[in-house]
Write a structure and sequence with these properties.
Structural class: alpha/beta
Number of helices: 9
Mean pLDDT: 79
Helix content: 55-70%
Strand order of the largest sheet: 2-1-3-6-7
Largest sheet: 5 strands, parallel
Low-confidence stretches: 374-387
Number of strands: 12
Length: 387
């Protein structure tokens, strides 16, 4: 195990030699009798574990030099500073603390005590190094956790947006925006019932022939199917093909978990959109049938009224032409009254049918109004940023 590096700075050459001899068994030592030489040694060796610095170095102060070194951010560094002085006053000790020194010694210095102090400083440095490593490790764990939380948060935002989509284009745009934000590249395929499939690429807009063929080929695979850096997520109504998921990374595991949920959400939304579109089509058919039926009822009613008016007119005119006895006239009048009475009942039936048709149209209109509720765009909603 290599010995710690020690830099000693003192303008007294005899004292430098004394300290060097007393400490060389435990330390690799470099000596400087002025601050200029100390700077040269720092430049040459780049790093010292401890600098042992006299307060009075010619006309310069060791405490000022320590303060300057502590304020500099440089790869050329000293881990710990020990300031010593011929004065052990309270002011001298406080000055050592103020300049950033890690310890203070008063002359004359016992070599045994100095060795012990320097050994404690080395132990202190090892503890600091261990503590810094632990902090870095914790920071790394925290950063990874925050990154994972951010990715899961983005996935939650995506599923929230998907639940408000009203057509395939909105679904595609929201999924591709998620891809862009997460640094993913891929394709989406829709398999709507009764119509040809639709294929889109996040990078090029439309899929290449080979991408289309791969998605058609793999759409019958399990919900999650991996091949190299490619991964496809399947649902009977939609597939997501991710082209750049590397194997064995934390991010890949996160994306797989997230997109396995997203594909179910997209599939459920497509089912809802398909059902809604079918419902709208049925509504339109019902509305058309009701309107046509109502017109036919009105025409039939009007035609029946014309026929009855014609019959009444002809019978009334026949009474003036025919030579009828009283019994015959009563008989014919009874026939007319019966027909009119029956006609009156038909009028009531027509009115009931028309009323029911009107109620049906009102119900269809209310259902259409529910389907046509204003769509709230994502931009209009103030969303809290997750992580």
């Amino acid at each position: 195990m290599s010995k710690p590096n020690l830099l000693i700075i003192d303008d007294d050459s005899d004292y430098l030699e004394l300290l060097n001899e007393g400490l060389e068994d435990r330390f690799t030592i470099k000596c400087a009798n002025n601050l200029s030489l100390a700077e040269d040694l720092l430049q040459e060796y780049g790093h010292f574990d401890i600098a042992l610095v006299d307060e009075n170095i010619g006309t310069q102060k060791g405490s000022d030099w320590i303060k300057l070194k502590k304020s500099q951010n440089s790869s050329i560094s000293v881990k710990s500073f020990v300031l010593y002085s011929g004065l052990a006053t309270e002011e001298a000790v406080l000055k050592g603390l103020e300049c950033g020194a890690d310890d203070f010694l008063a002359k004359p210095i016992s070599l045994l005590a100095l060795n012990n102090k320097l050994e404690k400083l080395i132990t202190y440095q090892e503890k600091i190094h261990l503590f810094e490593d632990q902090l870095k490790s914790k920071d790394s764990v925290i950063n990874v956790s925050m990154a994972q939380a951010s990715k899961y948060g983005s996935c939650m935002q995506l599923t929230s947006k998907l639940n408000t989509c009203t057509d395939f284009d909105e679904i595609k745009d929201d999924v591709f925006n998620y891809f862009y934000n997460m640094g993913l590249e891929g394709c989406i395929a829709f398999y709507p019932l009764g119509t040809p499939p639709l294929f889109y690429s996040s990078k090029k807009g439309c899929c290449s022939p080979v991408e289309t063929e791969v998605m058609e080929l793999l759409k019958t695979k399990s919900r999650l199917f991996r091949f190299g850096s490619r991964t496809i997520f399947n649902h009977p109504l939609v597939s997501l093909l991710i082209l750049n998921l590397k194997e064995g990374t934390v991010d890949t595991d996160i994306f797989i978990d997230a997109l396995a949920s997203v594909i179910e959400c997209v599939g459920a939304r497509i089912e809802f959109i398909t059902y809604k579109n079918s419902l709208i089509e049925v509504q339109e058919q019902i509305q058309s049938a009701v309107v046509t039926t109502k017109k036919m009822v009105e025409i039939s009613k009007h035609h029946q009224q014309e026929i009855m008016n014609e019959i009444v007119q002809k019978i009334g005119a026949s009474f003036h032409i025919l030579d009828l006895n009283e019994t015959q006239e009563e008989y014919l009048m009874d026939l007319v009254h019966g027909a009119l009475k029956k006609h009156s009942q038909d009028d009531i039936n027509f009115l009931e049918v028309s009323s029911l048709l009107d109620l049906t149209l009102q119900s269809v209109d209310r259902l259409k109004n529910l389907n046509n509720k204003p769509h709230i765009s994502h931009d209009a909603i103030e969303e809290d940023e997750l992580f």
